[in-house]
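Q: I'm writing a short explainer about RRM domain-containing protein for a general audience and would like to include a description of its predicted shape. Could you first generate the structure from this sequence?
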Amino acid sequence: GRASGFGAAGGPSAIVPAKEERKRKITKFGRTTMWDVAPTHDDLLVQRHQAMASCPKKRREVYIGNLLVGKVGEEMLRDTFTKFFMALPAFHHTYPDLADPICGVVYPPAGYGKFAFIELIDEVLAATTLLMSGFELCGRPVRIGRPQGYVPPPGGEVAPLDVQPLRKSGLIPALPEAVSLVCPSAVAATRMREIYFGNLEAGTVDEATITDLLVPVCEEMPEYNMDMGPAVAKVTLASTGMYCFVQFQNAEMATRIISVFDNTELFGRRIRVGRPTSYASAAGIAAQGLSQPVQVAAEGAKVTDAFIAGAAAGAAAAAALSTL
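A: Of course. Here's the predicted structure. Afterward I'll give you a sentence or two in plain language.
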């Protein structure tokens, strides 16, 4: 039959602890139900600090460009973006106690006031800020993008908040900008992480072969940071199969890879490893001060025994693939 819900002592004491436990439950985003209580301000602060500590700064930071020099300062940027977020119902629903979504605003000296970087509370707000690109400030359309050195999360980009209320009210463009939401220096940074691999055995070497060859070596390098995603971000094989371009986690790792693999043998062929032709222009963009330039290690970086062993292991893995 149906349980009475009374404890051994004949009263409701047996079910009270479970019910009280449900009442004490704090939901992830502060939403409440008939069984929940709203988290305290201290609870939300702890949750927010934990989220910030686990999320790299680059994922919470955005580039703000095309600013009117001498007119748009830190206070104006703070006020503008705070006003935008406060006009979003999704923001109040997700961050019920948050009055200031901005952690900091930085104007790099080399930018002469033409651009700034804004650090948000978390990566969701950063992704949402990207959707605001194109709004007018002091008579100029503001360009918003990712900063140099940005690496997408391993699981993919996070979902932004709904900005349709801003579009409908005319605060931001009615349609998303049909431009790349990446600042110029971010494109240059990607090029500086890219390396050319040539003289490959067409039909034998594919993208998986290159990945298996490189990953064991890269993960032994001091430049590798597990928290910043995979060591090898992307491999693009040419249609001829004779060469490819590899994007690494960072520019320093890409530089060191050249001295490790150039003129080594893969499937009986001496492969050529070096900078692609776009590297010189990318390095020039970074040096112009659009953002902090990447510090690239010397081409003649010392190859340690660990690197050589890793390269051998990678080559062995590639050779094993050829026998399948």
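A: For your explainer, you could say: Residues 1-10, 12-16, 22-35, 285-308 have pLDDT under 50 and may be disordered.
Q: Perfect, that's easy to follow.
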